[in-house]
Amino acid sequence: MYWLLALMTFSLFGIIALGIYFEINPLSKNINTPRWLKSTVAINLFTFLLAQVGLLFLGIQEVMAEPTTVEAIREISVGMGLAMIGAGIPTALATIGAGIAVGPVGAASLAVIAEKPEMFGRTLVYLGLAEGIAIYGLVVTILMLGKL
């Protein structure tokens, strides 16, 4: 299973390196994209996706395996660790989404409050609605951790 983690790590490093390369040497609009670009990105993403699916199936098999004896000390296996990371992903993505939503809503709220201070209550409600996205992700994570 560790080889799948290594494969995913190298694939991610490849995607990051390709992004840095094109940040330093951007493609101009007049030049056609190099032939190697599309195939490299496609192979890299396919490798990452394949490794993720393999890790998912191997991790599920290890988490669902019935222990033969009752252990006094509960050790966390690789599969259980991956399951916990998977349970934390909804909170991470919801928090990123909330951050993306709160930015423009907060800026607009400040602009409205500068012109009409009596609108403070309404803008606070809109800001709270945008922040509520993160709470939904946290609730989903708590529900998923209850199943582990």
What does this structure look like?
This protein is an all-alpha fold and 148 residues long. The chain folds into two domains: 1-65; 75-148, F1F0 ATP synthase subunit C (F1FO ATP Synthase, Up-down Bundle), CATH 1.20.20.10. The chain has four helices and no strands. The protein has helices at residues 2-24, 35-64, 78-115, 120-147. Helix 1 (2-24) packs antiparallel against helix 2. The chain is flat and about 60 Å long. The protein starts with a helix and ends with a helix.
What's this model, at a glance?
With 148 residues, this protein is mostly helical. The chain has four helices and no strands. It is flat and about 60 Å long.
Task: Assign a percent range to the helix content.
Answer: over 70%
Name of the CATH superfamily of the largest domain: F1F0 ATP synthase subunit C
The first-level CATH class of the largest domain is given as Mainly Alpha
Main pleated sheet: none
Radius of gyration: 23 Å
> How many helices does DSSP assign?
4
CATH architecture of the largest domain: Up-down Bundle
| Strand element count | 0
The unreliable regions are none
Share of β-strand residues: under 5%
The fold-level CATH name of the largest domain is F1FO ATP Synthase
Helix and strand string, N-terminal first? Answer: HHHH
Output the structural class: mainly alpha
Oligomer: single chain
- Total discrete domains: 2
Looking at the structure, what is the overall shape? flat
Mean pLDDT: 81
Report the end-to-end length measured between terminal Cα atoms: 20 Å
